[in-house]
Specification:
Number of helices: 12
Radius of gyration: 22 Å
Largest sheet: 5 strands, mixed
């Protein structure tokens, strides 16, 4: 059985497709310009160039909308890594302290990231569920405005005092210093981390930035747990329950403290309960409030600290 078009011709007319794996994004772009690729998703810095060349290349550069994924900073809260022989690293206290985390959230210059990393082709992200997901996105969350003065006040309120220019210590005198990682190969991620590092160092927090090859990064996240802070992106799904391995406390993608035998905090237990109750409701409009609640909890507890979402072309 074949579908027919208005003139009676067989549909579809595309009888095959060749998929070429090009690991280097620069090489992929050159292949597209040379006519060796028919479909290409340009990086932000390539969109302007393609618009100028569209007539000559006989192509269309079309906006497809806001990314359905999420891109965020996350701090390690895993006691299995930070507690050794009954002694906890001071980092565990920092990374679970809302004064510290809220200060970090107010120190993320999303507009600079949009302008400098995405050439204006991004929007500030507030929730881990994209606004492109119109049913499950919670539209009522208020963003953490970029405000370094407020960030400094929150740090001081938490006992993190600036002892001299460029050096801030915790209540026990430990210097605030942590390692930051992201995957190699993304100029956008690299620039975002540079902006983040510069702003935190203006607050007296030392950031040791090191991009890692992806397999090494994954090993640290799900095996050795040897990490402090990561900038990472997840692809989105239509139904948030498909991401339950990330939300649920026992999930192995529950990045900040994976594979918990029981929820480590009351708010993680509440997320688990919202997942169970949401999955039992079949009507999407009735299910949505359960996932809005999960977004609110993550936003308030800052398990992940949202950055920006690209606008795709």
């Amino acid at each position: 059985f074949w579908m027919k078009d208005a003139q009676g011709g067989e549909l579809p007319r595309l009888h095959g497709q060749n998929i070429i794996i090009v690991q280097d994004p620069n090489a992929a772009y050159l292949r597209f310009l040379a006519g060796q690729l028919d479909v290409y998703g340009p990086r932000p810095e390539e969109v302007i160039d393609l618009r100028e060349k569209a007539r000559r290349l006989k192509i269309n550069v079309e906006k497809i909308g806001i990314s359905t994924g999420s891109l965020f900073f996350c701090f390690n809260r895993n006691p299995r890594y930070f507690v050794k022989k009954g002694v906890a690293s001071p980092k565990l206290k920092w990374f679970t302290d809302l004064n510290f985390l809220r200060a970090i959230a107010h120190a993320i210059d999303k507009q600079a990231m949009i302008n400098l990393c995405y050439h204006g082709m991004a929007v500030a992200a507030v929730s881990d569920v994209s606004p492109a997901n119109k049913v499950f996105h919670d539209p009522d969350l208020k963003d953490y405005d970029y405000d370094l003065n407020l960030a400094a006040q929150l740090l001081e309120a938490g006992g993190y005092h600036l002892v001299r220019p460029g050096v801030r210590v915790d209540p026990n005198g430990n210097r605030l210093e942590f390692n930051l990682m992201t995957a190699t190969g993304s100029p956008e991620f690299d620039r975002m981390c540079a902006i983040f590092k510069q702003d935190l160092e203006s607050l007296g927090i030392k950031v040791n930035y090191r991009p890692l090859e992806f397999t090494t990064l994954v090993e640290k996240l799900d095996s050795s747990f040897d990490w402090d802070c990561v900038l990472i992106g997840f692809t989105g799904t239509i139904d948030p329950n498909d991401g339950s391995n990330f939300y649920r406390s026992s999930g192995n993608l529950h990045l900040w403290n994976p594979d918990q035998k029981k929820p480590a905090t009351p708010w993680e237990a509440e997320i688990d309960r919202m997942l169970d109750e949401g999955a039992s409701e079949m009507d999407p409009t009735k299910r949505a409030p359960y996932y809005w609640k999960i977004q609110e909890i993550l936003h308030d507890q800052l398990a992940i600290i949202m950055t920006v979402r690209g606008v795709g072309y």
